[in-house]
Amino acid sequence: MDKPSDNKAWLLVLPAFLLVVFTAIIPMMTVVNYSVQDTFGNNQFFWNGVGWYKELLDPSTELGGRFYTSLGRNLIFSAIILAIEIPLGIVVALSMPREGWSVAACLVIMALPLLIPWNVVGTIWQIFGRSDIGLLGAALNGVGLNYNYVANPLDAWATIIVMDVWHWTSLVALLCYAGLKSIPEAYYQAARIDGASRWAVFRAIQLPKMHRVLLIAVLLRFMDSFMIYTEPFVVTGGGPGNSTTFLSIEVVKIALGQFDLGKAAALSLVYNLVILIVCWVFYTVMTGSRSRPHVLGGSS
Amino acid sequence: MARIDLVDIGHSYAGSDAPEVSHAVKPMSLTWRQGGAYALLGPSGCGKTTLLNIISGIVVPSRGRILFNERDVTSLSTQARNIAQVFQFPVIYDTMTVAQNLAFPLKNRRVPPREIEARVGEIAELLDLTDVLGRKAVGLTADVKQKISLGRGLVRSDVAAILFDEPLTVIDPHLKWQLRSKLKALHRALDVTMIYVTHDQTEAMTFADTVVVMHDGRIMQSGTPAELFERPEHTFVGHFIGSPGMNVLPAEISGREARVAGHTIAMVKSYPTLAANARAELGVRPEFVRLAAPGCGLPVHVERIDNLGRVRIARLRVGDLKLVATVPRGLELTGAASVVFDPARVHVYAESRLVAGAD
Predict the structure, then answer these.
(1) B222: part of which helix (H) or strand (E)?
(2) Which of these, B50, B49, B58, B67, lies nearest to B8 by C-alpha position?
(3) Could B108 and A195 be called an inter-chain contact, meaning their C-beta atoms sit closer than 8 Å?
(4) How far is B203 from chain A, CA to nearest CA, in Å?
(5) Contact (CB, 8 A) for B261 and B323
(6) Interface membership of B148 toward A (CB under 8 Å)
(7) Which of A62, A168, B99, B269 is 20 to 30 A from residue B220's alpha carbon, by CA?
(8) Which residues of A touch B55 (CB under 8 A)?
(9) Do residues B27 and B63 lie in contact, with contact meaning Cβ atoms separated by under 8 Å?
(10) Which residues lie below 8 Å from residue B285, measured CB to CB, with a gap of 6+?
């Protein structure tokens, strides 16, 4: 059968296409353009080829050194965030009520942190953690712990991690809760009849049924935590020293602090690539055991 | 292996002190003998699934006791009762292979691995699952999944009874027959009590030795398929069993005569126990209504004749009453006709309950 030749479809796609062009493709290409040039004041540009990339990937240079150290911080940070938030989110979802009025109450309370703007979250914790007037900081010092996130890198990390857990565990929990709600009651009844323990029910029913939403949770939490900027910027400003300077903060420092647009552009692109690669690895590993290619689609 | 007694069992989802009208299962007593094949038959919402869940222990009844071999199990958990249940939608453990699925109940009960393996092999053989034992259960078709659910019940050698909650709902029609005969064969081979919940009378009649018909939380009749067909104890059973169901006609009974829509029909029995002010009805199945030329019996008007392939059904009218009759091959009638009831097959109901006749 011949398809009717009607090119109206292209016209209908045009607005969306233009939007993508102006919001994604043109800015992205500008960054690519910057990354192969050296910039000076007065809008002077000089061709630099892959020079910035070479420097970036060579740990012995100043730029490369900063890149690898920050990348390491990012990877450690994301690993800690995933290791805490995913299990914690599952536990929270499992202990949430399954019916009754308390469901709505729980959902609202869980959603609250997600509704707060990121820089406000940062400000809340910045004040909360201050050792002179902050409730948390003052209390910790009051019980004899020497806590000061401005001076001690470990305290700074702890503060940012706890803040992120407070901010984002709800998302994981809500996703898992949605996954749990989709399990028909018959599964639990059958498991009871089969004599399954609480742990066996979790392993054999709940975890497999949460598989899809967990994949989404892991990807979202990885991407977000790997791109973290606002909260550490507000709380610690990347310090003390450079101890909480993540790649995103590094990019801003290079681009807007030093006005090295070429270096910053090269770093941005590599940064972007790292996120894509890690996400691809997660996706492949988590869907590898199943031969279905459309895990992200469907009813999750 | 167990005999199951329900003693004065009743259940209301609104709590034990709720009025009886609101009970999902109205107070009843019933015995399921060891090794029987039972069907619980009734329309949606009649309480049959609740009754099944009371037996399996998923629902704790608000009143009464359940005995397994005279032992009171009312307060025991599902697990401790040793029953198996197959649900409407196949329940399988996605991440496990078929073999692991079958082994799951035994593993949970800490049976030694060697024994598990032997038992799983045996059950797989019985259910024709040997070929797929090593495969992931998630990719299999609904009928195979349902066999796995059944298998998980059967692997436990000590299982007291197997309960089925409309297990063929999601199975393709041509496989329903196969699976049903498989169940029947298993029942003969294993001598285990099976209770099968369904709203499909064909399923109930072909599977069970004893069919228990429920309506509105009450047991209407419990008997063999033939008994339900030939002697419905309640007009509901008459309606519900058979396709089309029994004709129920308001009537006045006096002596050996019944008056229906102003016409008199002779009866072979008299009904001395029938109370004078009771609402009396005649019940006769379409199979026992003979359609004839006008003037042979009760005059009727033929509204239409439906050809159902295997059988033809005449829709008739006597005054304001509707009547259904099967039409023999070759007979063509329109407009005025008459019907004759097979006198031995006519039942009398008072307030919807069967009244015994006297010779």
Answers:
(1) strand B218-223
(2) B67
(3) yes
(4) 22
(5) no
(6) no
(7) B269
(8) none
(9) yes
(10) B229, B238, B242, B246, B247, B345
Burial class (CB in 10 A: 0-12, 13-18, 19+), B209: middle
Secondary-structure class of domain B243-355 per CATH = mainly beta
CB contact set of A269 (below 8 Å; sequence gap of 6+):
A31, A32, A35
- How far from chain centre, in Å, is Cα A297? 21
Is residue A52 included in any domain, yes or no? no
Largest CA distance in chain B: 78
Taking CB atoms within 8 Å and a gap of at least 24, the contacts of A147-155 are: A149/A235, A149/A236, A150/A236, A150/A239, A150/A240, A151/A240, A152/A240, A153/A240, A153/A241, A153/A243, A153/A244
Nearest CA among A258, A256, A236, A238 for reference residue A247: A238
Q: What is the pLDDT along chain A (300 residues), one digit of tens a residue?
A: 566 677 788 889 999 999 999 998 999 898 888 888 887 777 777 887 787 888 878 888 888 888 888 889 999 999 999 999 999 999 999 998 888 888 889 899 989 999 988 889 888 888 888 888 888 888 888 888 888 888 888 888 888 999 999 999 999 999 999 999 988 888 988 888 888 888 989 988 898 888 888 988 998 898 889 888 888 888 887 778 788 888 888 888 888 888 788 888 888 888 889 888 988 888 888 787 554 444 343 333
- What one-letter code names the amino acid at A210? M
Nearest 10 degrees: Cα torsion A233, A235, A239, A245:
-40
Closest Cβ opposite residue A195 in set B88, B91, B105? B105
Could you say which of 3.30.310.170, 3.20.20.70, 3.30.70.20, 3.40.50.300 is the CATH number of the domain covering B4-234?
3.40.50.300
Comparing C-alpha atoms, which of A78, A80, A91, A295 is closest to residue A173? A91
The count of CB pairs under 8 A between chains A and B is 51
Alpha helices by DSSP H, listed for chain B, are 48-56, 78-81, 98-108, 113-126, 142-154, 173-190, 201-207, 225-230, 235-240
Query: Token pair of A222, please?
Result: 């990885």
Enter the tokens of residue B120: 């799983």
Q: What is the distance of C-alpha B173 from the center of its chain?
A: 19
Question: Two tokens at B114?
Answer: 């060697």
Q: Which residue has the tokens 């009904």?
A: B271
Q: A112 lies in which domain range?
A: 67-288
Residue B80 backbone phi and psi in degrees, to 5: -75, -15
**Residue A31 belongs to some domain of the structure:** no
Encode B68-95: b = buried (16+ Cβ within 10 Å), e = exposed: beeeebbeeebbebbbbbbbbbbbbbbb
Any domain includes A201: yes
Say yes or no: B7 contacts chain A, CB-CB below 8 A.
Answer: no
Q: Please indicate whether, in this complex, the C-beta atoms of B104 and A196 are within 8 angstroms of each other.
A: yes
Q: Is there a domain that residue A4 lies in?
A: no
Q: How many domains does chain A have?
A: 1
| Interface test with chain B among A193, A199, A286, A291, by most B beta carbons within 10 Å | A193
